[in-house]
Amino acid sequence: MSDDRPPLRHADVLACRAIGNVALSPDGDRVAYVVADPPRPGAAPATTLVVAATGDGREQRVGTDDGIHDLPTWSPDGRRLAFAADHDGSGLLRLLLREPDATVRPVGEVAGSVEQLRWSADGRAILVLAADPGSDRAGARGGTAIGSSADGTGPLVRRPGERWRRLHLVDVESGRTRVVGPPGLNVWELDWPGSGPVAAVVSGDPSESGWYDASVVAIDLVDGAVRSVHRPRRQVQSPAIDGDGRIAFVEGLASDRTEVQGVVTVVVPDGDGSRVRRLGIEATSVAWLADGRLLFAAQDGIGAVCGAVDRDGGVDRWWRGTATIGRADAACASASRDGRLVAAALQAPDLPPEVALLEPAAREAGWRTLTSCNAGLRERRTPPAERVAWTASDGLELEGILVRPVDHGDAPLPLVVAVHGGPTNTWTASFSPARLHLGVALLDAGYALLLPNVRGSSGRGQAFAERNVGDMGGGDLGDVLAAIDALVERGLVDRDRVGITGVSYGGFLSAWAPTQCDAFAAAVPVACVSDWLSFHHTTNIPRFDELLLGTDPVAGAAEYRHRSPVAHARRCRTPTLLLHGADDRCTPPTQAQEQFQALAEAGCETELVLYPGAGHGWSDHGQLVDSAARTVAWFDRHLACGPRTTVADGACDG
């Protein structure tokens, strides 16, 4: 039976509404969530906070129709909803409260930008985590500064340890706000059962780099005492504490804050001390249910999984499938207090993002879509996506996602390999493959798209994630080349028309690969690293390269140089287009400048594009359109595929 729906186009995915921060009310009768408006030409980013009934889906907007709304957090009785908003364009999120009568009012005077909220058990106070203006956003969240720390006219002065993330306790009725510390510690994440101690991820170094060495502590809000709970070998995320004092979290190798997929660990009070239980499963997020079970959500290969762990360590997987729940880079879900209902942002290759509900007692029915935020996109034919598997030269079994254009036919296709960021991240089955909406733009232009989960990816256990520590650009590049061989052998792609792109770590590998082999006809590194030595001394995350290279720039200077694309640029003959955000604090734009200049001096065809105001990626409509147009045009020119470009209006000039 023929499908006469129009195919999905690049302009369609630019109009897609992203969904995040899904929060079920304690009784499960309502769900709050944040909808990101699609980027519009010349318009500032905007998000909308919505509350919907889980029964009939009836919706009500919260707050204003413009500005940023985020972090919906229900009061224990479910009658009030705390959230954060930026209505004045300052870049700082302020604390607001939705009352039972649906009126909204500001609460307290929290210095800085709100990042996390927790209610007291009696509903009279809200614990707020706030970042000082000028603090760094995580690279996965843009890699720029929060708010403004300068007036734009005077000198910009920087000193170590200037900007912190602190805890504030706000009285809901009076608005009285007091800082509850802890002094000398930077709080990255927290959880609070509403009374007793707070569980937190903290570090003595408040810089973005300090997060890599953070530990788990318990903080007494009365006297400010801090008790060490766990000093991890790797990185930690998602602290959760229950009324009995049990503290859960995930621990694992992570290249990016907010993107830890690690072993679920519980520290249980035991007399005068405590004991550590590792539950034998991985997750990116955990939360306690009222009956003592632990809710978890995790990346699972190219899909995701969610469920609960009982007090004895028994694992009940409520759902497991080839889709994305939560964010594409970190799985998460929300549950009612009793675990009767689960809510999450759900998307798949044939399903645009929506809020969906799951009843564990009736799990065979799967997810029920509640919202219609992207109903119009369901009327589009989506490019067919399939799981592909191959074997590396050393025998390692690998997998990824192959997406082919609508109506692709049987002839071998030109291929673009899109390498994910991280490297401890993964490609999961999602509606718009690849970052910056580049995937649909390439598919729309006739290219097949390979999303490989090479060694070092998350979602396959810690041993797999650790496989490229000290070997970035080694076995992982070999995995990409083996994938291309496998697709060529299956007759799916044309070996002579293969390109490579990627963002962040994917930008590094797509800058590195053309200096190591001639497998690629063109490359488009985005937000790349080209020189690990200069990266270490200019990035806001110098612990990153020490962690992933397994050495430091003094003892390992030769290794830093050896692993740098710029050191091998003279032998590169692959046309390379470099795209970079001018305000990127994670991979500074000088990284792209170095590679551009080295390639130009080597006589290699190259081009550098910097996007003003953009950080570690970009969301501006004009920049998204321009970067997609340039990427497609570059591959069209060098892979002899086009011109068939149908990128959204606003194709590049110059």
From TrEMBL:
<dbReference type="InterPro" id="IPR029058">
    <property type="entry name" value="AB_hydrolase_fold"/>
</dbReference>
<dbReference type="GO" id="GO:0004252">
    <property type="term" value="F:serine-type endopeptidase activity"/>
</dbReference>
<dbReference type="Pfam" id="PF00326">
    <property type="entry name" value="Peptidase_S9"/>
</dbReference>
<dbReference type="InterPro" id="IPR011042">
    <property type="entry name" value="6-blade_b-propeller_TolB-like"/>
</dbReference>
<dbReference type="Pfam" id="PF07676">
    <property type="entry name" value="PD40"/>
</dbReference>
<keyword id="KW-0720">Serine protease</keyword>
<dbReference type="GO" id="GO:0006508">
    <property type="term" value="P:proteolysis"/>
</dbReference>
<protein>
    <recommendedName>
        <fullName>Acyl-peptide hydrolase</fullName>
    </recommendedName>
</protein>
<dbReference type="InterPro" id="IPR001375">
    <property type="entry name" value="Peptidase_S9_cat"/>
</dbReference>
<dbReference type="InterPro" id="IPR011659">
    <property type="entry name" value="WD40"/>
</dbReference>
<feature type="region of interest" description="Disordered">
    <location>
        <begin position="137"/>
        <end position="156"/>
    </location>
</feature>
<keyword id="KW-0007">Acetylation</keyword>
<keyword id="KW-0378">Hydrolase</keyword>
<feature type="domain" description="Peptidase S9 prolyl oligopeptidase catalytic">
    <location>
        <begin position="441"/>
        <end position="639"/>
    </location>
</feature>
<dbReference type="InterPro" id="IPR002471">
    <property type="entry name" value="Pept_S9_AS"/>
</dbReference>
<comment type="function">
    <text>This enzyme catalyzes the hydrolysis of the N-terminal peptide bond of an N-acetylated peptide to generate an N-acetylated amino acid and a peptide with a free N-terminus. It preferentially cleaves off Ac-Ala, Ac-Met and Ac-Ser. Also, involved in the degradation of oxidized and glycated proteins.</text>
</comment>
<keyword id="KW-0645">Protease</keyword>
